[in-house]
């Protein structure tokens, strides 16, 4: 049986941050999806990270970039997951819906 192909787009958010030496959350370069044990047994996962920012800093051109990434890849994958911070997730979801 072939595994599903999934594109995971990491944009940052708190889940992708670590505390700096002052205790302030900053974007991390860690591939936090690798922390999920056996994730690659579930699907053939491709990861793209077009941004690594706090979601409160998500500008319109980043949302357009997400829409383009989805469009460019939708014929080659079975699904797309966007890992996004919660502060502006609803705004991004609405914007992508209309794009």
Describe this entry's structure for a reader.
The protein is an alpha/beta fold and 99 residues long. Helix content is 28%, strand content 22%. The protein contains three helices and five strands. The chain has helices spanning 39-42, 60-73, 89-98, and strands at residues 5-10, 17-19, 25-27, 44-48, 79-83. It has a three-stranded parallel β-sheet. Strands 2-3 form a two-stranded antiparallel ribbon. Strand 2 and strand 3 (25-27) form a beta hairpin.
What's this entry about, in short?
The chain is an alpha/beta fold and 99 residues long.
Number of strands: 5
Structural class: alpha/beta
How much helicity do the residues have?
A: 25-40%
Question: Rounded to an integer, what's the Rg over CA atoms?
Answer: 14 Å
Main pleated-sheet profile: 3 strands, parallel
Question: What is the strand content?
Answer: 15-25%
Low-confidence stretches: none
Quaternary organisation of the protein chains: single chain
Helical segment count: 3
* Mass-distribution shape: flat
Neighbour order of strands in the largest sheet? 4-1-5
- Mean pLDDT, to the nearest integer, reads 88
